[in-house]
Amino acid sequence: MFKFIEDFASYLKTENPGKAPADWVPATDRCPANMDGELTVNAFKFAGMFKMPPQKMAETAVNFFSNHPDVESVGCVKAFVNVTLKPEALFRDTLCDVDALFAAGKTAAPRRVLIEYSAPNTNKPQHLGHVRNNTLGMAVASLLKRVGNDVVQVNLVNDRGIHICKSMIAYQRYGYGATPESSGRKGDHLVGDFYVKYNAVLTDEINDLKREKPELADKSPEELFLDTEIGRAAQQMLQDWESGKPEVIELWKKMNSWVFAGFAETYHTMGVKFDHTYLESQTYLLGKDVVADGLAKGVFTRREDGAVVCDLGPKLGVKVVLRSDGTSVYITQDIGTTLKKYDDYKPESMIWVVGDEQIWHFQVLFAILKRLGFDWADRLYHLSYGMVNLPSGKMKSREGTVVDADNLFAEMTDLALAGCRERNTGAATEGELEKRAGIIGIGALKFMLLKFNPKTTMMFDPAASIRFEGDTGPYVQYACARIASIGRKAAEQGIKSDGTVDWSLLTAKEEKDMALTASFYPEVLKLAAERLDCSGLVEYLLNLAKSFNAFYRECPVLAAEVPDELRRARLTLASAVGRVLEDGLNTLTIQTPDAM
């Protein structure tokens, strides 16, 4: 926080006791480019608090700032007061103490937050859609931690159901005993092959049916599923699984173990770590007792056909929570699983990172939990997100046209490696280049996925995201690498930043602009956490990296003609900005290489 604005707030509260909260300080914004000044104080926003016309408040501010030792000049346009700070005051209140700047990004009211994301199925590998889900989930979790919250990250894996049985049936019939080791296939990819095979056979059988019986031509695949032999086989396997048939359970465990091993590799590449993983095979019966209790209390009613329903009004409609045969539906399981998560971790709020096609489902879930009387049900949030498309078009899992996460990671790393080789002066070994490429490639992927508001349906172009210039992750990483290089060269020349910096030497526009941009880092963090949207932080890091590059061009740090004191000041300034950039990228779960 700038001292001049804190002093002004103290002055106003002293002159007008009782009219402002004890911790109140006027907000400052960057001065518009078409006005003279560095920071703007908008008197319109707080004049009413002190029962003063905005213009009068602006005049009061101008008079106060004109006599403040930190202020170089002050001007006023209507009720907007524009201030230019002396360099020593500007840097003292921004980048002189980076740890204090970081601490200012902590929330005043930390809480325990549980966030659930990923939620893959064990019948196929994770794909680009999962990558966006994982990226959003882990970045939002990291952001919430960064501002001081206690965050619990959980995963709910869908490891049962008819879709799982499809892969199992295909493996029984066409697997011929293959294993990940014997086939050379990653476990989740191997199982996914059989899911694709199953759907190919199913499609052939449905087409045969329609040729044999033209009257079925307008029927959907779902309607004809049980009219096919392979459809009935999958349904029978599901029944055998639910009844605990030993050979089915054994096959299920074996194939699931392959998939989980594959998922572990995918998560490791992305840096995903969960505090707990729930399995649907262990939670799918939860919730039935809650429904029974709700039925007794009148929250639910029994329909004429025996199904138990909840009437949520004209907006959400009537939702079945138990079928007429007494079996649960997804909402029943979600009710039970939500209660279990609450009992396990006692969070103050819960977040689900799930695609926007499930918006209605979560509205219903939250409404039912409120009806059931859980006081924490008002603190549940569905972080919905749009689809990710590629220039080649949409993805379809059952047709095998998805972009596997692992293949995408490999492509990103290869693209990054080509860029690293192109820039290598011969100092780095191939192994070092490959390590850098992994950091740059995965970082570019995450950065681009976080660049847009989660609700946006976006087009992802791997080649565009990996560019070292432009609004990309590598552009920000490159700024960090350049700052690290400056630090290494300074050390070689015996130039140290020992804290005895004369900030008054930093008078260049680019120097002050960089410090001003850095000063808004705490507010950017807290606003992004409040909105559960990392795109604002991404935009901020791009702007700070651009400010650094302008500084780098116009303000030589280590050039021979630069006086020693100015070198030390600029080195300290660049190092501080590097820490902010690195902290921001780390908050987004993106690593920074020492060199590019």
By secondary-structure content and strand pairing, the structural class works out as alpha/beta
Distance between the termini: 34 Å
Summed up, the helix count is 23
Strand proportion, as a percent range, falls in 5-15%
List low-pLDDT spans: 394-400
Comma- or semicolon-separated keywords:
596 residues; 14 strands; five-stranded parallel β-sheet
Descriptive report:
With 596 residues, the chain is α/β, with parallel strands linked by helices. Among the domains are: 3-85, 2-Layer Sandwich (Gyrase A, domain 2); 161-272, no CATH class. The chain is built from 23 helices and 14 strands. The strands form four sheets. The chain has a five-stranded parallel sheet, with helices on both faces. It has a four-stranded antiparallel sheet with strand order 1-2-4-3. A hairpin with a 5-residue loop joins strand 8 (301-302) and strand 9 (308-311). The chain is globular, with a radius of gyration of 29 Å. The protein starts with a helix and ends in a 9-residue tail after the last helix.
Summarize the structure.
By secondary structure, the chain is an alpha/beta fold. 53% of the residues lie in helices and 11% in strands. It has helices at residues 3-15, 54-66, 87-92, 98-103, 128-146, 162-174, 180-183, 187-212, 229-242, 246-270, 280-283, 288-297, 313-316, 330-345, 359-371, 405-423, 430-450, 462-465, 473-492, 509-519, 521-531, 535-554, 564-587, and strands spanning 28-30, 39-42, 71-77, 80-85, 112-116, 150-157, 276-279, 301-302, 308-311, 318-322, 349-355, 380-385, 388-389, 458-459.
